[in-house]
Structures are given as structure tokens and as C-alpha cells.
Amino acid sequence: MFVIGERINGMFKDVAKAIREGDKETIQDLALKQIEAGADALDINVGPASLDPLRAMEWLVRTVEEVTDAPLAIDTPKFELMEAGLKLCKSKAIINSTSGDKEKLDRLIPLAKKFNASIIGLTMSKSGIPQNAEGRAEIAVQIVTYAEEHGIEMRELYIDGVILPVNVAQDHSKEVLETIRQCKLLCDPPPKTILGLSNVSQKTLDRSLVNRTYLAMAIACGLDAAILDPLDTDLMNSMITAELLMGKQIYCDNYLEAYKKK
Question: Does domain 2-261 have CATH number 3.30.530.20?
Fold first, then answer.
């Protein structure tokens, strides 16, 4: 499982405060703690924390890259912020994200080629998020086709089934799992699959329990990557155990420690 740490996001109060105050220590501490906890990459999102988001994005990327060479997922809906972040990335970058709309694909797929970046494609369009797996898979086909036509290899493309909070869109939970399954049948080799995991538990009573249960179910359906909180030890242990039970890890009595040391 490819883990992208979610915590460097201006939606979190501590990160927003650090961005406003230019507090490198807080950001760098979060970066290192997430990597130590098992993150393979770090999501970078200014959010609403700054009145000058372009400068804030550049500051965040530079600040994180002072302490780690881990891949960065530049997370923004604004093209100018995306390009600014990618320009500064010294290691492999990830574009987070495009939808299935041609206007977005026309701008972001060339950007992925230009910076040799991976890209996340959301199964949504101007019409919104489809109610069922079939609608999501149709958008996934459009993204895959466009990517292939423009020279993006499937190992660089992640399809996100777009999970919604279970307390307001419970029916979507099983449809996203089916979307993950269907994405594996789209082409050979298939695109990778990813989820912004924490969305499923927004405003639920026990977020960690919902997150780790859904992650285990998604792994069983073939999930390749997730944007999540690696500082949640129970969540990470559930992920490792789910992969073990799916035969992706070799069992030993101290398999949790063995995974973390690899």
C-alpha cells in the first residue's frame, strides 16, 4: 500500500496557524513524524490558511523539502498553485487532482508530462459524483483513455472512486468498493486505485474505527494507495494486517514491526 500522509493541510488548525506565522518547525515536525509512521509520500495543501496561497504553497514545499526527499502530492484545485508547487519539487511529484472533465484533463495531463509527475483522477465531473459504480467507472474510462492517448503510463495514473461521508451518503460506500474492483478490469496493466480515506468518516462519532474498517475492505477490493493519517497507529496496523491477509506480506509473529522496518 502506497501511503500519502494527509496532515500538512491548511484545513487543520495547527497547520493553518503554522502557515500564517511562517512556523517551519511545526510543518517539518509533521513531515518527519508522518514519514516515520509509514507514509511514502506527503500531501501538501494550503487550504484556506493564507491570503496569499501561491506564496504559501511555495513556502510549504520548500519547508518540507528541507527535511525530507519523500514524494509530494501537490493538492489544490488552482492551476497556478499546482504549477508553482510542481516547479519546486525536487523528488517525484503527484498531481492531486483532476476530474474527468476535458477542460481539466487538457491542462493537468500536459502538466504531468512536463514535470514527470503521477496524477490522481477523480471519478467525478461537472455533473457531480455518480451515484453508482457504473457511473464512476465510465468517468474512469474517460480519464484512462485520455491519459493513454497523451502518453501517461498506467503506473503513473491513480483513479480515485471518491468516497463520501458515510453519515450522509451511506449507499456510496459499497459503490466505491465496486469501482475499485472495476478499475482493475479497465486495461492491462490497469491504473492504480486510491482513496482520500478520511472523507468516509467526516463527522462520525468514531472516525478511526470507520476509517480503518473501510480501508481494510478497500484493500480486499484491490486498493493500491490511500491519502490518510499515518499518525493513527490503529489505522496503520489495520492496513498492514489487511495486506498480510491478502497475501501481500509474509507472515511472521512480529509482522507489524517487520513492515515498519522495511
Answer: no
